[in-house]
Amino acid sequence: MLKEIITAVQSYFKAHQFIRTHRLWKWIIIPGLIYALLFLVSMYFFGKSASYVIEMLSIKTGLKAWVDKMQSSLVGFFFALGGIMIWLILMLMYFSWFKYIWLIVGSPVFGYLSEKTESIIEGKEYPFSFKQLMKDIARGVRLALRNALWQTVYTFTLLILSFVPILGWITPLVALFVECYYYGFSMLDYSCERQKLTPMQSIEFIGKHRGLAIGNGLVFYLMHAIIGIGWILAPAYAVIAATLSLYQHKEE
């Protein structure tokens, strides 16, 4: 799996060269600007909401009053640390929901970019078909809803575990890798669909090569650390990198 993660990470550098060489910027910048704006607005309100949920839980459960009564700096430290862990889990959960909405809305662009990438690599054109486009969008929506459901189940489980001392400290990291896997899954599925894999076959195939999905999603999230430009480039780079990594895997 480690080799596949490395392959997926390297594919982002190849994607950058690929975009420059074939002048695909117009398919990167415009959707990227829309995504960046939606991401900025959503994260602001998500952050406010997560803070409110944590404050409400601590007051309603009486935990805040108990910590104040203890007057212990150590207890206060663990309480604050636990609050941070829960906040991170909630933010990842909120972001995953936002991500799936974006995947559904942006599926025509992502599908085109993946197809364009493969057509350039193989030197052949895929004829445009509106009927096929609708089928691709419907497939993307079904898989996005399926993945959103499973990821929400896993995230809620991790949210409960985040209340457990010490064990809860690693839950944000586990949640991040789950998030990376499901995002990378969506990016890889565009190529799987062109190989005529059914949704179930795609799920099985990507499950066997989860390193490609995790690596793709991991770099996607790391790009968000580059404020502004990273938000704009992340979605399109992810789908092109996923296509290149899967093509390389097929050749090997």
Describe the secondary structure blueprint for this structure:
Layout: H1 2-22, H2 26-60, H3 63-70, H4 73-105, H5 107-122, H6 130-161, H7 171-194, H8 199-208, H9 210-223, H10 229-251
Can you put this structure into words, describing what you see?
With 252 residues, the protein is mostly helical. The mean pLDDT is 81. It has helices spanning 2-22, 26-60, 63-70, 73-105, 107-122, 130-161, 171-194, 199-208, 210-223, 229-251. It has one domain (2-37, 92-251). It is built from 10 helices and no strands. The radius of gyration is 20 Å and the shape is elongated. α2 (26-60) crosses α10 (229-251), α6 runs antiparallel to α7 (171-194) and α7 (171-194) crosses α10 (229-251).
Task: Give a brief rundown of this model.
With 252 residues, this protein is an all-alpha fold.
Number of domains: 1
Strand content: under 5%
Main sheet properties: none
**Termini distance?**
15 Å
Total of DSSP H or I helical runs spanning 4+ residues: 10
Mean pLDDT: 81
Helix and strand composition category: mainly alpha
The percentage helix is over 70%
Radius of gyration: 20 Å
Task: Identify the overall geometry.
Answer: elongated
Name its key features.
252 residues, mainly alpha, 10 helices
